[in-house]
From TrEMBL:
This is Cytidylate kinase. HAMAP family: Cytidyl_kinase_type1. It is found in: Cytoplasm. The lineage of its organism: Bacteria, Pseudomonadati, Pseudomonadota, Alphaproteobacteria, Acetobacterales. Its EC number is 2.7.4.25. Keywords: ATP-binding, Cytoplasm, Kinase, Nucleotide-binding, Transferase.
Amino acid sequence: SKKLVIAIDGYSGVGKGTLAKALADKLSLPYLDTGLLYRAVGKKMLDAGLSVDSDGVVQIAEELTEKDWLRDDLRTPKIDKVASQVAAQPRVRAALLDMQRHFATQQGVVMDGRDIGTVIFPNADVKLFVTASAKVRAERRWLQYTTNPNDPAKAEQIKQIELELMQRDEADASRAVAPLRPAEDAHIIDTDHLNASEVLTQVLEIIQR
Ligand code: C5P
């Protein structure tokens, strides 16, 4: 039987990864978090002291392998920012394109990112665009990382996270190459009032249609 290609795009910190992992698990499909590719390129750029538009960064993207992105130090505010900067470079995106497409051959795939339904797999079987207000996303992210749920600085910290998420959304949506936007045929999933399992249920219904 034909294996599904499922494209998941959406804003930063919206729970795309959680949804993608759960779907991949449920449907026994491979999973690729494409944000990790841009994060890994950004990290290597920082480590090498390169500038964002240099040839060296393009070469890093061309030579990227799994060991570069399967590491646990790529989710920091600093890497959030450089990932978004390298992601605006057309040559970096071009260097990562084939690798992402090849990931889907034969076995199908669940892939999440910003341009999966628009650029990587315009013919995906199912396209999802996941949204939530910046405030809700910031609150969820804060709850994930806080060590003290009663922290007196809570409101201030959430505000700061919200600001960073909005800046990254704005950068991702306004860049010239592969800007963040829903594909015309994407199903919009608003998760403001849904928890992870409710989102999964809704999406499984869409896929079964
Ligand atoms: O999804 P994640 O937050 O890990 O992505 C980090 C950054 O990588 C995003 O802010 C975006 O700039 C970039 N990205 C992208 N295209 C993708 C996935 C991520 O431009 N398909």
